[in-house]
Amino acid sequence: MVKASYIKHPNPMHRGNPLVEGLGYPLSKAQLYERCAIPFEGELDLSEVPLELHGYYLRSSILNLFSMHITQDEFLAVYENIRLAIESGYLGRNPLHQDWQRALAAIERDKHQPLKAQSIRRLNLLESSYTFLICGLSGRGKSSMVKRALSFIPPEVTHTTYPAASGEEVVCNIKQIPYLYIEHHDRKGQKAFLDDILEAIDEATGENYAFQHRNSKVKDLINAVRKAIVIHHIGCLVVDEAQNFSPALGDLKIGTNEKTSMRFVEELVNVLGVSTIFVGTFSALKLFTKEMTVTRRTIRAGSLNLASCPVDSPFWINLCGALVTSITLAGGCDSYDMLRLKLHELSAGIPAIAVSVTQATLRFLSFLEPNEQKLTLEALDYVYAQQFAPLSGPVNALLHGDYHQYEDLKAMELLKVVNGDPKNEAQAQYEEVERKSKELAQFYKQQYNLKEGQVQVMPSAPPRSAHEVDAQKVSAQLNPDSFMAMLGGDQ
Predict the structure, then answer these.
(1) How far is CA 321 from CA 70, 259, 266, 339, in A?
(2) Type and span of the H or E element at 195
(3) Which residues pair with residue 158 across a beta bridge?
(4) What would the pLDDT profile of 431-448 be if each residue is shown by its tens digit?
(5) Do residues 17 and 90 touch, judged by C-beta distance below 8 A?
(6) Angle formed by the axes of helices 336-347 and 377-387, to 10°?
(7) What residues does the ORC1/DEAH AAA+ ATPase domain cover (predicted)?
């Protein structure tokens, strides 16, 4: 629980709204990167440990690699989109205005037809909703970035008095819930999904909505969720594992046995002006191909699509540097640059795989004699073949662009690279990387057809008429030499 820290919001659309101004200023890029980093904790005190158990505790410390956190290059974009979504969710919902409770009355009037929601739509809150999609490869770090970003936003803000522009203190006794985080693990029905939201609201507020509505029908649950969102001033709904939604049907129905789709969620909250952040794998992109309205409204504010991490990106250099230097082995290690390239080859640029392979290799080496403990390319290859063989298929498919071989990767055929070789501010820190390292990275990248960094969906080409001709080709055929050749004359 955090007490509101009011600012004068520069945006006139948000000025005078305590729900927005009470959030204070967002964190700057420098503040985010400073607070995000979690160093490796591996210093061991073996002074009182029997010698034969030193290896055990070394392997115990190696597992701490999973707790280390290196800030990804896209983290700033994730944080800013969530923060902007929360602010946008309060447009038209200023608690200092007498008419903000009209939404509650509208919800009550629409209780028998909650999806049509004609009374709510008349309030025109839909126009202020901010809907964004964050999708990417499994293991890319989407969920961890989202959770990390949410940790820098207070889950509950209390208001007592608000300093109005006139100088007077306005009584404003409010407990505000800026966001709700929901994980949609299974293809649940609508009732189960609504129950999950009510449970999340209960956890955030201390209420007991889920138990009170345990026997309610879907229509009643929709109304209960909407009322709770308004009463507790919830600005944004963050829904993780969005790939588990069912495809949207043209005729949206509600019922206990009806599957939950993105369109259902969009209809549930966006009419209230509540923002929605969807997080999922690339499989979530398939859900947009069924209906244009779903696509347009679900990515109202755009999307962030994350393919493999580029081998020469600041994040990958930092991550691999931390992985191979955190544990000091008696035999040392191969060249950092070569290890970085090898980890990228074995993981296809997926951080979660790189961390797992490194810690498994270090644990394997810890069983050897000290003079044989050396982190090498061969050691990484050996442990990968022994312990991570099931991953070799999808990793190779990513490296060579054979996305059709795996269901989870098929959606990547729709994507193209936006900035495979990013030039950003953070990269300036690495301008002094040795020429040999750059040459190795360039040689490595030429071997694979790997999609890296941010990607976007390729626009569909318009259908071509059978009567259309290639003007350039026809013009070339009609040049003097070609024309004389067709007539059989001299050239």
Answers:
(1) 10, 45, 42, 9
(2) helix 190-205
(3) 3, 175
(4) 444 566 666 667 767 777
(5) yes
(6) 20
(7) 132-287
